[in-house]
């Protein structure tokens, strides 16, 4: 297992993160939709992750209405000191007018709930789960800064922000002298490369680490889906994140060819591709079954050649959008000469 610094912090995280969205009870709505491990299997998965060298675990206050945090806390037990816990704030299981978002009121309430459920005195990485258009960023930043100063939170991150929102948050934090976000959690996969347009460049420019969620596109890249018919799985009841399936099946064809040549599984190659991409700090893997997690952990040992990366890049490439289809000009060049040279 390799370890990388999380942004410009002194915190090193494993290149794989254990995601705990499936830490739920079978009779819960969350568990019925996404799959549920129950406590015993959740503990077994934490054991396997630690044995493999994973040191960071991702959860959220809203996963199974807080049950994910409870199960993670119990699974870690006395090993809490050896783990980096990342959880999130924004969503809530209740529907009061002040329950949603990242106001000072919501943040201060939700952090206490997460600490209690996790059975810990501090949260290593506290992430804003979504951009809140109804709360000034200044208010959110000051509240998070207070939590760091109080010792309840060590680092702060953000998730599901647009690139301009990331840049605005970073600029405001610098201007105000508050704790800066150190990481971005975002969706990225071979069939979901949109963040390469703006989000990854913004994160790299600002020195932010990245945590990648749904690297297998909600199971689409698990290898069980084909053009002939989709197998039973999570996407049957929860078709998310969205996938261009015409292009997606071409990606799967290439994944299967490379996996067969390397004696690996399709998910392992899809995860390894991400581990080779610039700007990626850690990839979040989660599972409903022990064998799925064991297979995912094997991705850390796979090396892809430049030719294999090029094949996967080509088959999964997005059409460039404005302004990215505009060729950059160097000093001394003219648009006319460049266009003439292309003819």
From TrEMBL:
Q: What is this protein called?
A: Predicted oxidoreductase
Q: Which GO terms describe its cellular component?
A: cytosol
Q: Which domain of life is it from?
A: Bacteria
What keywords does the record list, in alphabetical order? Oxidoreductase
Instruction: Enumerate the PANTHER family for this protein.
Output: NADH-SPECIFIC METHYLGLYOXAL REDUCTASE-RELATED (PTHR43364), OXIDOREDUCTASE (PTHR43364:SF18)
InterPro entries given for it? AKR (IPR020471), AKR_Detox_Biosynth (IPR050523), Aldo/ket_reductase_CS (IPR018170), NAD(P)_OxRdtase_dom_sf (IPR036812), NADP_OxRdtase_dom (IPR023210)
Show the Gene3D superfamilies listed in the entry.
Answer: NADP-dependent oxidoreductase domain
Q: What Pfam families does this protein's entry cite?
A: Aldo_ket_red
What the entry lists under PROSITE patterns is as follows: ALDOKETO_REDUCTASE_2
Gene Ontology molecular function terms on file: oxidoreductase activity
The NADP-dependent oxidoreductase domain covers 15-316
């Amino acid at each position: 297992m390799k370890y990388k610094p999380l942004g410009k912090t002194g915190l090193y995280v494993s290149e794989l993160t254990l995601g705990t969205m499936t830490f739920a009870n079978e009779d819960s709505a969350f568990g019925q939709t996404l799959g549920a491990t129950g406590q015993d299997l959740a503990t077994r998965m934490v054991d396997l992750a630690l044995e493999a060298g994973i040191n960071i675990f991702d959860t959220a206050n809203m996963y199974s209405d807080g049950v994910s945090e409870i199960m993670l806390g119990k699974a870690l037990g006395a090993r809490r000191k050896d783990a980096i816990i990342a959880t999130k704030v924004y969503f809530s299981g209740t529907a009061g007018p002040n329950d949603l978002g990242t106001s000072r009121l919501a943040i201060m309430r939700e952090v206490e709930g997460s600490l209690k459920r996790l059975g810990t005195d501090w949260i290593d990485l506290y992430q804003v789960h979504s951009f809140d258009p109804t709360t000034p960023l200044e208010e959110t930043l000051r509240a998070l800064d207070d939590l760091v100063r109080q010792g309840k939170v060590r680092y702060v991150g953000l998730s599901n922000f647009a690139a301009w929102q990331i840049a605005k948050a970073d600029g405001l934090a610098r201007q105000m002298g508050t704790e800066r976000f150190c990481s971005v959690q975002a969706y990225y996969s071979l069939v979901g490369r949109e963040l390469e347009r703006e989000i990854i460049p913004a994160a790299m420019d600002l020195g932010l680490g990245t945590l990648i969620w749904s690297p297998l596109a909600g199971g689409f890249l698990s290898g069980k889906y084909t053009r002939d018919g989709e197998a039973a799985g999570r996407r049957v009841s929860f078709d998310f994140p969205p996938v261009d399936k015409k292009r997606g099946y071409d990606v799967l064809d290439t994944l299967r060819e490379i996996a067969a040549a390397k004696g690996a599984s399709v998910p392992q190659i899809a995860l390894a591709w991400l581990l080779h991409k610039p700007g990626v700090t850690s990839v979040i893997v989660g599972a409903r079954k022990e064998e799925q997690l064991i297979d995912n952990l094997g991705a850390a040992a796979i090396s892809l050649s430049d030719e294999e990366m090029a094949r996967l890049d080509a088959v999964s490439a997005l059409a460039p959008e404005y302004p990215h289809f505009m060729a950059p000009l160097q000093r001394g060049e003219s648009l006319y000469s460049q266009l003439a040279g292309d003819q």
